[in-house]
Amino acid sequence: MTDETKAQLEEAIVNLIREFVNRKRFKPGDVVKEMEVKFSASDVTKDDVKSAIRELTDSGRLIYGYAGGSFLSLPE
Amino acid sequence: MGKKYETPLLDELKKGKWPSFVAEMERAAETSEMTGDLLGQVEQSYKEKMGHWKHGGMVGVKGYGSGIVGRFSDLPEKYPGVKEFHTVRINQPSGFFYKSDSLRKIVDIGEKHASSLFNFHGSTGDIQILGVKTSELETIFQQLVSFGFDLGGSGSALRTPSCCVGMARCEFANYDAMHICYNITQAFQDEMHRPIFNYKFKFKFSGCGNDCTASIARADMSIIGTWKDNIRIDQGMVKEYAKKMNLHKYVTSKCPTKCMNYSDTGLEIDDSNCSKCMHCINVMPKALRPGIKGGATILLGSKAPMVSGPRLSMVLVPFYDVAEDAKNGYQWFKDFVGKIWEFWDEYGVNRERIGELIQRVGIGNFLEAIGLEPLPEMVSSPRGNPFVLYEDYVEADEGQGESPQG
Asked: How many domains would you assign to chain A?
C-alpha cells in the first residue's frame, strides 16, 4: 500500500465515523469490511485497515467506546 | 472518617465466620470518601433490589480499546463519590506468581488514585483496581507500564488469557500451561487491546483434567491437559493406600468408565477406556501419576448464561502435542486460532460468541471451513451424539430413503 493510499484510507475511516455520528456505532470489524470494499481496487487488505485503525486510535483521531460491544468514535 | 450511611442490610453480611467483603469495604472507607459513598449506594441497591450502575461509555486510555471498564452511578447527586467508578484491569502474570514488591506497587496505586478496593482476581484472571475516576486513568496506566504491567482485555476483544500454576508447582500438569499462556498473550496483544471481534473471546489453559481455571465452562477455547500413554502405577504405594482406605469405595467404584479393578494382585487399569478424569490420581497421588506422553485437548465454545444460555466447550482437537509445537513458537496453535477467528469474523453477528455461531451454522460447516476432519471424539457432552454430518455417508445414502442419523 502506498503512502497516498494509506492517507486516503485513514481519511475514509474518519469520514465514515463522522458521517454516521450519533446515528450508527461502527464496530472496528464493520469498518474493516466497509474499507475492504471501498478500497478493493487498491489492493487494501484486512490487515492494512486494522493497521490504519491502530494508527488513528494511537494518534487520538479516533477513540474506542463501549455500549454492549466495542465501537469506534470521534473524540468528544 | 466516620461511617457516612447506616447499612443494616450490609451489616448482615459481616456475621458468621467467613471473611466479609463488607468489612473490607468499611476498612477502605476509613480513608476513602469514595468507598464510603459506595457502601451507601450498595445498601440502597440491596434495599431496592435494583442495581444503580451504568456500564460502558467512552472511557479508556489513549490508543487502547480494552482494559478499562466504564462504570457510573445513576445516583450521582446522592453519592457523588461514586459518580465515576471505573475498573482498571491489569494483565496478571501467568499462574498468578508475583513478587511482594509488585503487589505493594499496585496497592500503592490503588490507594493513591482509586477507592483502595481491589479484586484479586476477576473471573477472567485479571487484577482489578476498582473505583477509578476518568481523570486518573492515564496516570494509573502510565505508572503500571513504568513497572512492567499492562492492561488486560475487555469489550469485544481477546480477554486476558489465563492459566493454572502448571508445571511451576503442580505435579499433575501435562504441559507447560504458563509458558504457552505467556506466549499467546504476547502474540495476540493487538487482539487484546484493540477490539476487533464480534464479541469477547477467552483462552484458558489448564494443565490437567482437574481444570483449575474452569476452562471447560468459562473459556471460548479451553486447552486442558491430558496424556496419550498409560497412568503410571506404583503398586507398593497402592497397597499402602489400601491399608488406610477402602479402594473399592473411594477409587475404583468412582471411576466414570469403570476401567479399573483392585484385587490381591494389585491395581489394574484398562487405559484404553480411561477418560483421564483425574479422580483416581487425585485420591492416590503418591500411587498414581499421569502418563509421560503429555499434551492437551483443545475444546471450543463454552460461555456463561448471557444471551443464549450457558454452554460447555466441546472437543475439537483430542490431542495437541504442546511440547512439540512449543519448539516452533506455538505456530500451529496460532494458525489454528487464526482460522477460527477468520470464520467467526466472516459469519458471526454482533454479540455472538463462537460457540453460539457453531450452534447456528452447524459443526459440519464449521469443521469444513477451518479444515478439520470430523472425529468421533468431537462430542458435545459425555456419551452424547457427535452430531457430525459425514458428507460421504450422506451422499452414499441419498436416494435410499434413509437418514444416516435416523
From this structure: 1
